[in-house]
Amino acid sequence: MKLKQFIPLLMLVFCFALITSCKSKVSDADIKAKVETAMSPNPTVMVDVKDGAVTLTGDVQTDEDKRNLENAAKAAEPKAIKSIVNNLTVAPIEINTDDADLTAKVVDATKDFPNVKATVADGVITVTGEVEQARVQTLKMSLDALNPKKVDFTGLQVK
């Protein structure tokens, strides 16, 4: 190949390299803003960004929450984030073993379920009766939110 033919090819390669290297870099502030928006449902999560490395700190309720928040952070700006340091901690849940307190709260939690009976003994809620399939999850969430040792649904019939 002669030099005259090689120069245009060399210029084309140089221009391509110049164009691809001039892509705008996403700033740490922009990354932080996008990750904070992704974390907005969880106001206890703090976000720090340095040189494209994102650090998450704060308390969450479950290991699943911890994983989901890390994935949400990664998805916020996937091409610009170099790494994620997940320093989120799972806060321990205080178990309610006060039967009198649980009994009062169970009455309130089951008031919209006329065919359900729930009793409390030694911090365990035992549920009996009948409930529609569409409402099982609502009942379970209401009773789990009381933080008993356990909720026993084995006596519950689902219609």
What is the secondary structure topology, with strand pairs?
Elements: H1 3-21, H2 28-39, E1 46-50, E2 53-60, H3 63-76, E3 83-90, H4 99-109, E4 116-121, E5 124-131, H5 136-144, E6 150-158
Helix pairs in contact: 2-3
Task: Walk me through what this model shows.
- Strand 4 and strand 5 (124-131) form a beta hairpin.
- The strands form two sheets. Strands 1-2-3 form a three-stranded mixed β-sheet, covered by helices on one side. Strands 4-5-6 form a three-stranded mixed β-sheet.
- The protein has helices at residues 3-21, 28-39, 63-76, 99-109, 136-144; strands at residues 46-50, 53-60, 83-90, 116-121, 124-131, 150-158.
- The protein is of the alpha/beta class and 159 residues long.
- The protein contains five helices and six strands, in the order ααββαβαββαβ.
- The mean pLDDT is 87.
- Helix 2 (28-39) crosses helix 3 (63-76).
Biggest sheet strand line-up = 1-2-3
Using the CA coordinates, give the radius of gyration.
28 Å
Quote the average pLDDT.
87
- % residues in beta strands: 25-35%
Count the helices. How many? 5
Shape, please?
elongated
Instruction: Kindly report how far apart the N and C termini lie.
Output: 82 Å
Class of secondary structure makeup: alpha/beta
Helix-strand topology string: HHEEHEHEEHE
Q: What is the number of beta strands?
A: 6
Low-confidence stretches: none
Let me know the largest β-sheet.
3 strands, mixed
Instruction: Give the helix level as a range of percent.
Output: 40-55%
Features:
5 helices, alpha/beta, 3-stranded mixed beta sheet, 159 residues, 6 strands
